[in-house]
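Hi Q.,

Before the meeting this afternoon, I wanted you to have the zinc ion prediction in hand. No need to reply - just skim if you have a minute. The sequence and ligand are here:
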Amino acid sequence: MKWFYQCHACGATYEIEPGRYLCTPCSKLQQKDRPLAGVLEVDWEGEADPRTVPLPIEQKWFATIPVGQTPLWSPLRLREEFGAPNLWLKDDTCNPSGSFKDRASWLVAAFAKKHGVKEIVLASTGNAASSMAAVGAAAGLRIKVFLPAKAPLAKRIQVLQYGAELVAVDGTYDKAFDLSLEYSGRTGSLSRNTAYNPLTIEGKKTVAFEIVDDLQRVGSGAPDHVFVPVGDGVILAGVYRGFENLLRLGRIKRIPTVWACQAEGSNAIARALASPLAGNDAFGDPVSSNTLADSISVDVPRNGLHALAKLKKYAGKAVTVSDDEILVAQKKLASGSGLFAEPSSSAAFAGWLKVRQGLSADETCVLLITGSGLKDIAAAARGLGLEA
Ligand SMILES: [Zn+2]
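Predicted structure with the ligand bound:
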């Protein structure tokens, strides 16, 4: 198999090598305050073994920390309450750092080990940072993170416990993103900025393989609907990439309906999908994000153009939910299933609650639960009327 990067917009191809992040001509069209232009996808030529997940880095480079293979399970009480016999939870809170982001960090760390890179740098709203710090600790890599000073305490504590260097940024994620790029550009460190590094999308595709493997094991086949919490649009694109691979390998017959679940206060991708305009014009000027779901709170969705292209290509849908709906869903999910999810993941459940009556009970719905509720105690406390 020969692996390469391919621009999702113009189709140009590139070697997978350190220093390559975006498509050269497309990235020159980058507009200020707009999603990243020229995001690359990973692809391959040749025959792949349909029984395994095709990945561009050989297994021997992966850290031994157990990422992925998280449980897909049936929340029986929620199924009964809502008359949804085919509802499933994909519980990625079981990853080592308590977040789905470990899937991306794991692949990026393997790439760094393969190429002898010693330091990885990134900006994050919190989960990518704590995740990269965890996997970096397992792999023996230096990790430097730029994090908004207001990121939840638990995520900052994780970063420091795992031994990473934390740079607190007085400002938003968007400012942290720019500062981290300036640093990696100056020092030659490997950037793990989400969407900017194509491996962050590729690593996340593994979840689609696990969902299909587990459903096929119980005779359910492929899912009909997958509900994904969406901020930057990278998890969304990663999930789509996994299903595209599965289709190519003959493991599924069609791409499921993917639902982009966004907070009302950070809904750039949902607005772009509803817009009659295309590309950057669909996004318009950024709107300052305002939601308690910090993991999906972004002004400019970095992977917006790529995510929008996928949603349009596969007739994906968007649903937006208010912070109150997120908090109600968080409590309902925890008390109805035993799974305590952070607000962003609860947005996926809130999105399902909002649209479920339009879905058929025989359709298989998978909710992607991407982060543990213990990562953001303050938001959960607010939902309970407690002071944190
Ligand atoms: Zn291009």
